[in-house]
Amino acid sequence: MVEQKVALITGITGQDGSYLAEFLLKKGYIVHGIKRRSSLFNTDRIDHLYQDPHIENRNFILHYGDMTDSMNLTKIIQEIKPDEIYNLAAMSHVAVSFETPEYVANTDGIGTLRLLESVRLLGLEKKTKLYQASTSELYGKVQETPQSETTPFYPRSPYAVAKMYAYWITVNYREAYDIFACNGILFNHESPIRGETFVTRKITRATSKIVLNLQDKLYLGNLDAKRDWGHAKDYVKMMWMILQADEPEDWVIATGQTTAVRDFVKFAFEYVGINLKFENTGIDEVGIIDSFDKEKLENLKIDLSHLKIGDTLVCVDPKYFRPTEVDILLGDPSKAEKKLGWNREYNLQDLVNDMMASDLKLMTKDQYLKDGGYQIMNYFE
Ligand code: NDP
Ligand code: GDR
């Protein structure tokens, strides 16, 4: 009988952790995950995978832990002796990292060292492979376009600087101790379960709320920023592929296309039959209704009687500007395409459609709650 492989996922309660756990379970792995203790349940994204701890032979097991606690991480790794560790845990919000820079250095930077050092101290260098969730934010103030594995880094936030330490300590432990440790330099990837304060999800949630008459306006920061956006489902597959390659290497995973935040907003509103135009008021930029797409409205059966042409739906609020911004990211995934067979199921339009369909459904629940007299929250983060 072939022995089941054992994987440990840090950050299992996050967007990527959830999709990766699903993917590995389908491949027959025993999946262990580290979750943080919080005062409320924080496992929404993985509740569909949960198994009663009283049953025998579980293949999905959660451990309490934290990336800032070396002893905890070492104990878990000693106990389960994983074949593969996927280090996805991080304080992953770039803007928030300016508010909590020391915590981010500890979690996102030193946290990676803690895992690598545990593998080494436990003598698991030949057994345990490690995937490090590196990021296109490393390129920051970009030195060349498109960005590939050889483009120099210039991080522009405490988050990116912490991830830069994690990148190099991963390379160093590979070279010094022969650990199969790899960086996946992943460009932005989104999905219906993306954190609500990242820009794509903020847009699809707000668009859904606006058309359902639950919110008036969407407030955003830098509309000019451009990102190479893919779908998280496509990207978690590559995390696994990276650890199945013949040699441990570092890989860029991207779509090779870049889109401005402003255009993502337009696509989201187009999904619900609203064509927006952006205008400069002399003070700042606003997105106003230019026209309606009657056919789409009829198909979706949405009542937009509370909206009319000329209404302002999108405003710029400088509070969302960052002290230092990453203006444009565009990845060159050709190495992974050639050597790992990287290809994508979703393009940008598919991504927008998937996120909008999901958020419209979700916000319809809020509408029922509101109609039933319950309070619904609009968090403007
Ligand atoms: P999320 O923010 O959705 O998830 C982050 C996960 O890390 C959550 O499970 C969170 O737990 C956990 N976490 C945070 N701090 C700690 C800590 N101190 N100890 C233990 N766990 C912690 O991120 P994504 O899923 O989007 O991203 C996964 C990884 O990939 C991250 O490292 C991110 O930086 C990186 N990345 C993401 C990209 C993207 O576009 N999504 C692109 C490139 C890299 P909790 O649920 O309790 O908060
Ligand atoms: P990013 O993602 O910083 O690229 O990091 P985010 O979605 O937060 O921002 C993308 C761009 O949109 C601009 N923007 C806004 N962003 C947010 N969050 N809220 C706003 O209101 C807003 N308005 C404009 C931002 O300024 C930025 O230019 C993500 C995270 O997942 C990281 O963990 C990961 O490493 C990188 O992607 C790759």
From TrEMBL:
Keywords: Lyase, NADP
Top-level EC class as recorded in UniProt: lyase
Gene3D superfamilies per UniProt: NAD(P)-binding Rossmann-like Domain, UDP-galactose 4-epimerase, domain 1
Catalysed transformations (reactions): GDP-alpha-D-mannose = GDP-4-dehydro-alpha-D-rhamnose + H2O
GO molecular function, one term: NADP+ binding
Family statement: Belongs to the NAD(P)-dependent epimerase/dehydratase family. GDP-mannose 4,6-dehydratase subfamily.
Name of the protein in question: GDP-mannose 4,6-dehydratase
Organism of derivation: Arcobacter venerupis
Gene from which this protein is expressed: gmd
